[in-house]
């Protein structure tokens, strides 16, 4: 098994967490006629007919059909085709560990634990680089720009920061960062407006707090705000946006504005796999995240409001929702199924001395309790194999549902 610690090597590069609640298959997996076979480590040479185009489909229909009816039938055909192909693929690979580790509620428990452990380590490394002045804010997944000679950058060195607040490297390092920025996918130029920068700082910081909390990351410097500094700046007509104080070994620096925003979205990408401008959350950050454009040479007004709305709706839903992987474990559904399935194993017994007692009905167990809920708790703690057996069907159903989302 390859890939990052705690994750299998995810073959479907286009499979993202597209909404709160689970993984979402990229449309191209199925619309192109590949049927999801790229999802398998060794899919073999499976050949089949692909999804018909609309033009091909209408040739099969009667000549006098109305365009609206033809469109309706095509969408119906397309939906059924994709669903059938996904079911076929799932049935062929459902017993393979790599697929279970992405969608099975039982396997996901261990995956989440490993993911959280790795995120805590990455957060620690990220913040150490930030404090030492060696943090690379480029769109890639690498975390440190410390040069090989062992020198560390001065946190307050103005000549190492460009106009956008990004720390510069010299020579080949600077050229490499420039190449990455050029290659990174760009977003709407409205993202560079000062008004939008302040909105995104607050929203990105809220996401950092939310995702850190989900993964057990504590005492993150990026979650703090120097309110005293903000009040002073505002009273003197300066910046009224959030200011984060970064204390290095030999220097102190305040992060604000564009530099603060880029630090936050870089942290979200490298630690949490969340591409802020790309509107996606993935199990592992690979490639380049989306970046802002200059905005000066583009039409800022074109669809700007629509883009902003889409961005804000996406992340406000995430802030109000649950960790997508946690959602896929469906703990509440499984617990409810366990309570119902274990009910026959709670035995009500009449005791001449103590009155009614409740006994454990598991094979070979003679434990007695004062209330039925204590028997349920005992069964879950001391007879987990029985619980797994009784809830196996609901777990398998959830496995399939997670995959089909």
From TrEMBL:
It comes from Ilex paraguariensis. Its main location: nucleus. One of its GO terms (cellular component) is nucleus. Keywords: Nucleus. This is C2H2-type domain-containing protein. GO terms for biological process: regulatory ncRNA-mediated gene silencing; RNA metabolic process. It is found in: Nucleus. Signal peptide: none annotated. Residues 1-36, 139-195 are annotated as: Disordered. Belongs to the ARS2 family.
């Amino acid at each position: 098994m390859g890939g990052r610690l705690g994750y299998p090597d995810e073959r479907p590069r286009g499979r993202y967490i597209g909404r709160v609640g689970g993984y979402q298959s990229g449309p191209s997996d199925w619309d192109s006629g590949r049927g999801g076979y790229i999802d398998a480590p060794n899919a073999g040479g499976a050949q089949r007919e692909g999804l018909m185009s609309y033009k091909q489909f209408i040739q099969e229909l009667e000549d006098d059909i109305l365009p609206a009816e033809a469109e309706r039938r095509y969408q119906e055909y397309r939906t059924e085709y994709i669903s059938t192909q996904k079911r076929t693929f799932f049935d062929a690979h459902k017993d393979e560990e790599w697929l279970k580790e992405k969608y099975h509620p039982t396997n996901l428990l261990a995956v989440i634990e490993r993911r959280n452990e790795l995120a805590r380590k990455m957060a620690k490394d990220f913040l150490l680089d930030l404090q030492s002045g060696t943090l690379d804010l480029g769109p890639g997944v690498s975390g440190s720009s410390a040069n090989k000679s062992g020198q560390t950058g001065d946190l307050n060195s103005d000549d190492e920061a460009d106009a956008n607040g990004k720390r510069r490297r010299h020579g080949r390092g600077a050229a490499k960062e420039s190449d990455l920025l050029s290659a990174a996918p760009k977003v709407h130029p409205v993202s560079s407006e000062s008004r939008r920068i302040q909105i995104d700082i607050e929203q990105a910081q809220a996401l950092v707090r939310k995702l850190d909390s989900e993964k057990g990351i504590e005492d993150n410097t990026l979650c703090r705000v120097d309110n005293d500094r903000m009040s002073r700046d505002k009273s003197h007509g300066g910046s009224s946006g959030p200011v984060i104080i970064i204390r290095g070994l030999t220097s102190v620096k305040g992060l604000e504005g564009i530099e603060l925003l880029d630090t936050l979205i870089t942290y979200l990408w490298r630690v949490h796999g969340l591409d802020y401008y790309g509107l996606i959350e993935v199990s592992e950050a690979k490639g380049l995240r989306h970046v802002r454009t200059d905005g000066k040479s583009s039409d800022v007004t074109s669809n700007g409001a629509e883009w902003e709305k889409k961005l804000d709706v996406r992340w406000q839903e995430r802030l109000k929702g649950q960790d997508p992987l946690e959602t896929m474990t469906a703990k509440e559904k499984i617990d409810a199924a366990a309570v119902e399935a274990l009910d026959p194993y709670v035995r009500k017994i009449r005791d001449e001395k103590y009155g009614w007692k409740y006994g454990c009905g598991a094979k070979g167990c003679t434990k007695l309790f004062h209330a039925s809920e204590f028997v349920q708790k005992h069964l879950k703690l001391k007879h987990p194999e029985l619980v797994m057996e009784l809830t196996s069907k609901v777990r398998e159903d959830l496995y399939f549902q997670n995959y089909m989302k």
